[in-house]
Design a protein that fits this description.
Transcription Regulator spoIIAA; about 300 residues; binds iron/sulfur cluster; nine-stranded mixed beta sheet; single chain
């Protein structure tokens, strides 16, 4: 089994905790897509002996691309590789992008799993995180996605936020259970080196949540989600039966995967490598004009 990961490096604003590679210059979109398609041509043999079983569009915010843009990327994939063995095709989305029209158009692409970045169902926490949606927008987006026919939906929830309480976490869990999604990823807030919260902590402008309280939150999530029929199959991941993430599980089980786009990582079973984490430099490296089969884009990881 092998997987394909596509990194879409755009966001409209930066969440306070985030260290993923993304930028807000959306005018780079078309150059990026052309470069991405050009990069695909360097790896035409990657899935020759090991069929592609999963596709994952992550980011960044893939749902910032229009459906025709996503279609353009999907068509390029299907023209280059055999996708008849693909079992799971995930798109990461921000709740406020999921209008009825967008969801309806998405059904024209064989995406069968949506990963929706909810994070919390409390407005105060969402504001603190600098998310661009409200709790009600997130709740309604998941309802719309279900109504549009997406049966496999995962949402992200965060805990151990300095502004969070056991009561507010219980409220977020209530709303998640009410939605009845098939999968929940529950992440502890992490102080990643390049994130804004780490800088604020270093300036003594915020303190991490008390460790014991953070541990209580983890136990609360685990107890409530497993009681509701979710299996905790990995430290942060809870799934209804048969809804484990195949793509992410593959990373933990040594699956070969090809990562395309700025900052994307790859593993061919022996070597690991990563792309440059800068969209303009990535575009310059892979633009169609500079594309040729002798270019070696790999930067082997130490
Ligand atoms: S958390 Fe997601 S939406 Fe927020 S800045 Fe990072 S990649 Fe963008």
């Amino acid at each position: 089994m092998a997987g394909l990961y596509i990194h879409i490096p755009f966001c409209t604003q930066k969440c306070i905790y985030c260290d993923f590679m993304s930028g807000t210059n959306l005018s780079l979109r078309q150059d990026f897509i052309a470069s991405l398609i050009s990069e695909m041509d360097h790896y035409l043999d990657f899935f020759a002996d090991d069929p592609m079983r999963t596709i994952y569009f992550g980011g960044g915010t893939p749902s910032l691309l229009s459906v025709p843009e996503l279609q353009q990327i999907y068509s390029a994939i299907s023209q280059r590789w055999n996708i008849s063995s693909v079992e799971e095709f995930t798109l990461e989305c921000n709740p406020d992008d999921l209008t009825e029209e967008y969801l309806c158009q998405l059904r024209t692409i064989p995406i069968n799993r949506l990963s929706i970045g909810v994070q919390s169902f409390c407005d105060e926490e969402l504001r603190w995180l600098n998310r661009r949606h409200t709790a009600s927008v997130a709740f309604e987006a998941v309802q719309r996605a279900k109504k549009a026919g997406f049966a496999n939906i995962t949402i992200d929830l965060m805990f151990a936020l300095p502004v969070q309480t056991i009561n507010s976490l219980n409220h977020s869990i209530d709303k998640a259970l009410e939605l009845g999604v098939s999968h929940i990823s529950a992440y502890s807030l992490m102080f990643e080196p390049d994130s804004k919260i780490t800088k604020l902590m270093e300036l003594n402008r915020l303190q991490p949540l008390d460790e014991d309280l953070a541990a209580d939150m983890f136990e609360l999530l685990s107890m409530r989600l497993t009681s509701a029929g979710y299996e905790q199959y990995e430290i942060s991941n809870y799934a209804k039966p048969n809804f484990h993430s195949r793509h992410n599980s593959g990373y933990w089980h040594g699956m070969r995967y090809l990562g395309l786009g700025p900052s994307a990582h790859s593993f061919d079973g022996e070597k690991r490598w990563s792309n440059i984490a800068h969209t303009i430099k990535y575009n310059a490296q892979f633009s169609t004009l500079h594309s040729n089969r002798t270019l070696n884009p790999r930067r082997t990881l130490q």
